[in-house]
From TrEMBL:
Residues 1-45, 50-69 are annotated as: Disordered. Residues 9-45 have a biased composition (Low complexity). It comes from Rhizoctonia solani. This is Uncharacterized protein. It comes from the Eukaryota. The lineage of its organism: Eukaryota, Fungi, Dikarya, Basidiomycota, Agaricomycotina.
Length: 292
């Protein structure tokens, strides 16, 4: 029987059972750890992806203001500038219209309708009617200009409107004067009617008289009005009184007692108008002397 010792297995021998088992276990253990690490990493990546999917990537905050935003009145400056320019054009056209207008010395009121102030559309009244149409056209043009609630535009529109209204008022006053003149010139055959119309004109003018707080006086004489622009309107009222006197002197009463009495009434009314203006002139003059 062979008594030789059993073969020895070297640790380096591939056939060594004692060493092979640990190698396999080690490899399996390493592979297991690698798989676990890979699984853990993959799980983390998956978790992050799920979270990102639920929450979403970080975005910039939306462009919504924290406080309410109200529209600015000056947001559209082009429209505002256009409105301002339109009103300036109306005012410029008004100034040109007034400058170029030559008021006629007489008007024709022979329409024969229920409205005695109605003007006949003829050559005599052409320029006056045309000016009235121009002014009303400017009023209509101004009314169509928008202000957008801007205070400056609202004020400008009111000022331009007042300018147009003042010119129209002067036109109306002149129309009344020319109507009185027309009525007197066409009623010579009816003296009583002429005197009555003249008396009505005197009283109407007295109600429209202007009594300014200040007047300018000449240095050459006491209580004499200076021929200045400031006094022009006040002096024109004296001129109107002189016209009434001239018209009254043309009336022939023909020795009729009733007409003479009526003529005297008109003369007294004219004199009262004159005295009223002179009294105011004296009052302003005395106040000026005291203040000096």
């Amino acid at each position: 029987m062979d008594q030789s010792p059993p073969p020895s297995y070297s640790s380096l021998s591939p056939k060594s059972p004692s060493t092979r088992a640990p190698s396999v276990i080690s490899a399996r253990s390493s592979s297991t750890r690698s798989n676990k690490s890979s699984t853990t990493s993959s799980s983390r990546v998956s978790l992050v992806s799920k979270v990102k999917g639920l929450v979403g990537h970080r975005r910039s905050p939306p462009d919504y203001p924290s406080d309410p935003v109200y529209p600015s009145l000056f947001g559209d400056t082009a429209d505002i500038r256009a409105s301002s320019a339109a009103m300036q054009d109306v005012l410029a056209d008004l100034m040109i219209s007034v400058k170029n207008f030559q008021c006629p010395s007489e008007l024709d009121f022979s329409a024969g309708t229920e409205n005695p102030m109605l003007l006949v559309n003829n050559q005599t009244n052409e320029s006056f009617i045309g000016q009235l149409c121009n002014l009303n056209g400017l009023r209509l043009q101004l009314s169509s200009v928008r202000t957008y609630g801007v205070v400056e535009l609202i004020d400008m529109k009111e000022r331009v409107q007042m300018s147009i209204d003042r010119v129209l008022q002067k036109m109306q006053e002149r129309k009344l004067e020319l109507h009185e003149q027309y009525m007197i010139s066409h009623m010579h055959d009816d003296t009583a009617t002429v005197l009555e119309t003249l008396h009505t004109s005197v009283r109407a003018s007295a109600k429209r008289f202007w009594y300014p707080d200040e007047l300018e006086f000449s240095h050459e004489a006491k209580n004499r009005l200076a021929e200045t622009g400031k006094n022009r309107r006040f002096i024109a009222q004296f001129d109107r009184i002189n016209e009434f006197k001239a018209e009254l002197n043309k009336v022939d009463v023909r020795g009729d007692p009733e007409l003479e009495t009526q003529q005297k009434v008109v003369s007294i009314a004219i004199g009262e108008c004159y005295q009223s203006l002179k009294a105011h002139q004296r009052k302003v003059y005395d106040n000026l002397k005291v203040s000096v």
